[in-house]
Write a structure and sequence with these properties.
The complex is a heterodimer. By secondary structure, chain A is α/β, with parallel strands linked by helices. Chain A has 8 helices and 6 strands; from the N terminus they run H-H-E-E-E-H-E-H-H-E-H-H-E-H. Chain B is mainly α. Classes of the chains: A alpha/beta, B mainly alpha.
Amino acid sequence: MNDLERRLARAAVPPLDAERLGERLGERAVADGLLEVAYGTFDSPLGELLVAVTPRGLVRLAYDDEGVEDEVLAELAERVSPRVLRAPERTDAIRRELDDYFAGRRRDFVTRIDWSLVRGFAGEVLRATARVPFGSVTTYRDVADAAGSPRAYRAAGNALGSNPIPIVVPCHRVLHAGGGLGGYTGGLDRKRKLLRLEGAIG
Amino acid sequence: MRLPPFQALVDAHAAELHRFLTGFVGPHDAEDCLQETFIAALRAYPQLAHGENLRAWLYTIARRKATDLARARSRRPSEPMDGLAPDAEPRIGPIEAADDGLWVAVRRLPPKQRAALVHRFVLDLDYRAIGERMATSEEAARQNVSAGLRRLRKELDR
């Protein structure tokens, strides 16, 4: 290497301020109408949560356990839009609602929901589930009934198991007819905690 | 192959593209140019047929944005400032001062030579990789680097 080559290799390049770039990129993408899925993560009493919103509303909420984030973002890219950016400030409204809910200051969520990730019967089941009020519980059979197919309670169970918006669409309020807790995407421990928080179980 | 979430592209390539653009347009404009690159990419992203060679695609956009900027700069009327070349930046920051005008000289090179030098010395790539990034042969990459060095030396010796 001669002098000039060394000089080029040594030439100082200021480090990139990745956070600032992210903020500016998010703002600009919103201004240009290019931000189709914005997401952020934050802590909750049930562990870290990942929240994704579109211009139409809350599209995805996930317990951000090991390895979940990549999977969730890939699914959003494929099924909603590949224009996915980390822009936590876009999720502030729903984050505040969730904070209030966990602190016992809120019973109902008012944030708009984007149902892009649910189709057909699963959508009917989840919409019926969304009407189950705070503090009460229902059964798989009853939500299947409310969704228009009383005998399809197994399909209702599957729909609830793949609920893209847990907590806000309260699939934790759906139990077995015999009184058993049933299943839960985030694990039964979380289901129990949510029901306790709502005073539905002791 | 499906398209990955755009954020994954930003996370994987922002730092390297920023270094590339610093060499190409100088430290003052690199960040703006990087943002323009990502916004243009984001705009076109859903229309891509597949998720292959996304890095090369981003570099193509970055080079185009950098070239546009250089062109806009050279069109801009500039006031002669005691002895400085007309296309020298009026805002010379501490980094450029520390580099002793090197970036200013690099920026005067033709785009291909400039890009080749940045790939070679700022990003430390071999000629084969440079050829891939610039969509040319390994031999053309080598020629662009050596032509760039010759011309840069002349510029600096002036």
